[in-house]
Amino acid sequence: MKWITRERPKIDRIACPWLIRRFIDLEAEIIFVPDSQVKSRAEALQAIPFDIPGVEFTHYENQCTFDYFLKKYDLNDPALHIMAPIIRGADTDDHSVASQAAGLWAISAGMAFMIRDDYELLEKGMLIYDSLYSWATYLPQVKHVQSPAEHVLLQIYRTYLDQKGERKTKAPAWTTELRDLIQNHIDTNLNLSLKAVSEDLNINPTYLSREFSRYFDDLSFGEYIRKLRIEKAVQLLESSQNSLSEIAYITGFSDQSHFTRIFRQHMGQSPSEFRKDLAKRKANSKK
Questions:
Q1: Tens-of-pLDDT digits for all 287 residues of the chain?
Q2: From CA 73, how far away is CA 65, in angstroms rounded?
Q3: Residues 6+ apart with CB under 8 A from 191
Q4: 3-state secondary structure of 81
Q5: Which residue windows does the record flag with biased composition (Basic residues) (predicted)?
Q6: Which CA distances in Å does 112 have to 48, 49, 66, 171, 244?
């Protein structure tokens, strides 16, 4: 049987082929093609597409494609269900799901950076997931810290940090990349959608939509983008002689009417009223 997915695999698109070949279809042929060609090539090759939006084998809510394979084929091996949250956490960049998720992501990203051929990447990745499966089968309770005294000291240290409130939730790595991506689009007046951002970051859009407000001022994606556009509009109103229609265009609003309505919602007055008040304040300051 042929299975087809997007090129440049990292987590789910290596974990799923490993699962297919080890538990579902031992002779499976895995095919990697550009994102835009997956569905057309799947039809032409009579292959089953996976880990892309709009097909059966894909992400559902906070579950990744690996989770769906387990459910679809009723795979009840306990080791696979130990692996599942690790793969999910690495694939969605939510390392709170499993402590091992960050390590799997780091190894997978490094391997993808080092190996440019997708099929060689899959071959090497099979060993990674064979190893993870062996650990999940035989060693999940084994700790690297073997000394009882050392273990107790670590527990005391962690408890002390908890009591002091010094353990803080660290923002995922994708938030920094996302801030830069958003700012670049704001600066160049390009439209930016949640779907496009999730593709650029290789993050599930449902997860990104759900987690966005935690790290971006308690605002949704759309609210945050509008906030940045208004802030840029304020800067232009204060420092330029551009007309309101020009500022509306520069800041990415569909027209001056749309710009005025959103500006009023955020600032409590229209852009023209804001500019008049600004001129009055400047005049008064010179007296």
A1: 999 999 999 999 999 999 999 999 999 999 999 999 999 999 999 999 999 999 999 999 889 999 999 999 999 999 999 999 999 999 998 888 898 999 999 999 999 999 999 999 999 999 999 999 999 999 888 766 555 555 566 666 666 655 555 445 567 787 888 888 777 766 655 567 778 778 888 888 888 888 888 888 888 888 888 888 888 889 888 888 888 988 888 888 778 888 898 889 888 999 999 889 888 887 777 66
A2: 12
A3: 185, 252
A4: helix
A5: 278-287
A6: 23, 21, 19, 23, 47
Gap between the Cα atoms of 116 and 124, Å rounded: 12
Domains present along the chain, CATH in parentheses: 2-138 (no CATH), 173-286 (1.10.10.60)
Q: In what order do the strands lie in the sheet with 2-6?
A: 29-33, 2-6, 48-49
* Token digits of residue 208: 């990104």
Residue 202, number of CB atoms within 10 A of its CB? 17
- Distant-in-sequence, close-in-space partners of 163: CB < 8 Å, separation ≥ 6: none
Let me know how long the chain is: 287
Tokens for 173, please give them: 């790595």
Which three-class secondary structure state does DSSP give residue 140? coil
Distance, CA of 55 to CA of 19 (rounded, Å): 18
